[in-house]
Request: fold
Amino acid sequence: MKLVVLLSSLALATSLPAADEPAPVKVEQVEKQLADGAQLLDVRTQEEWKEGHLKGAKLVPLAQDGFLDKAKAALDPKKPVLVYCKSGGRSAKAAKQLREAGFTVYDMAGGITAWQKAGKPVEK
Reply:
């Protein structure tokens, strides 16, 4: 019983942003962030990218070797980065790595799944 409570507490703690990390950005806020100059980073796989992605996004798969170096090469460190994946798990990990590298990063809540559910367009 204690193990179940401990694991539940651990799952909750790992799903919450750290105090110094901004909360994930809701789909409704994404377009404003983009209009304000944020860069879009898709951290899904090449196969997922081909199924549809946000217009203007750059693809740097999180699972790829050298993710951080490739992301640094693809992004302007002076502009904020809005990162997304399918539903939010990979983008949270990528956002953490990019923040630690000195980028201003926002994670899109719910990923491209939430984007599409809100009726927003994707490119193929």
